[in-house]
Amino acid sequence: MHPDIARFLGVVERTSEPLVRDEKPACSVTVARSFEAITEEQLWEALTEAKLIERWFVPVSGRLELGGSFQFENQAGGKITHCERHSFFAVTWEYLEDLSWVEVRVSDGGDQGARLALTHISLLGDHWFAYGPGATGVGWELCLLGLDHYFSQSTEIDLASATFYQTREGKEFIEGCSDAWRKVSETRGFDPEQARIAARRTADFYLGVSDGKGPDA
Question: What's the confidence (pLDDT) of residue 217?
Answer without folding.
Answer: 40
